[in-house]
Specification:
Helices cover about 35% and strands about 25% of the residues. It is an alpha+beta fold. The chain contains seven helices and nine strands, in the order ββααββββααββαααβ. The strands form two sheets. Strands 1-2-3-4-7 form a five-stranded antiparallel β-sheet. The chain is globular, with a radius of gyration of 17 Å. Helix 1 runs antiparallel to helix 2. The N and C termini lie far apart (about 40 Å). The chain has a single domain, classed as PPM-type phosphatase domain (Phosphatase 2c, domain 1), CATH 3.60.40.10.
């Protein structure tokens, strides 16, 4: 069962100029599927309901409301007990990227180089940051899939926010760990730099990850932040 769920809008969503979301659900049976779908669809609705506030406040309030709703459901409905989901999202405001994440789904900025903007909320990432594990060994660590934050698991979430300047030629990639567990960053960059039309690159990433084993659901969303500008 595919427990990933995506949303993309180039048009305004509430007070936001656009909105892009990727989520990777977790939980047995249908719980993960429900969690990711609920979190993404409710995030969109929550954003639409915010009538004031700056961009970060709108995202923060909306995410906390989504978390509270999913956590409440997971406590009340036995079939969804303990469910949760990662979430990575972004908004492009002019030449500035605004991103937020909970869990280990990632956002990359890809130009001449590839840069991971978000930081994984995972046990292995904590080991890397503390210096007890190097990044190369981290990709194959047996506890790589143990995440330390997720939407819906607790009654409160800690959200990380990031901003980054955008330049012509940059591409934004949002993806689940089904992609990054199979492909190195440089392999991802080369596919994004290939001659394949932008619309075909997500499928090219998925196909290549599947060739390497495809051990998990794989989702990839690519945004050209300057596509509609002369």
């Amino acid at each position: 069962m595919n427990q990933d769920y995506l949303f993309a809008s180039d048009a305004p969503v509430g007070l936001l100029p656009n909105l892009y979301i990727v989520a990777d659900g977790m939980g047995g049976h249908r719980a993960g599927d429900y969690a990711s779908r609920y979190a993404v669809t409710q995030m969109v609705e929550q954003v639409k309901q915010q009538k004031s506030g700056n961009l970060r406040d709108i995202l923060d309030v909306s995410l906390h409301n989504v978390n509270a709703g999913l956590h409440r459901t997971s406590r009340m409905v036995e079939a969804y007990r303990g469910c949760g989901t990662t979430m990575v999202l972004c908004v492009v405001e002019g030449s500035v990227l605004h991103a937020a994440n909970v869990g280990d789904s990632r956002l990359y900025l890809v130009g001449k180089d590839i840069t991971q903007i978000t930081v994984d909320h995972s046990l292995v990432e904590e080991m890397v940051l503390s210096g007890t594990l190097d990044e190369k060994r981290a990709r194959f660590h047996p506890e790589k899939n143990v995440i330390t934050r997720a939407v819906g698991v607790e009654d409160y979430i800690d959200v990380d926010f990031f901003t980054s300047d955008l330049h012509r030629g940059d591409r934004i990639l949002l993806c689940t760990d089904g992609l990054t567990n199979m492909l190195e960053n440089e392999e991802i960059r080369k596919i994004l730099e290939s001659d394949t039309p932008l619309s075909g690159k997500p499928q090219e990433l998925v196909d290549e990850a599947n060739k390497r084993g495809g051990l998990d659901n794989i989702s990839a969303m690519i945004i050209d932040p300057f596509a509609d500008r002369a």
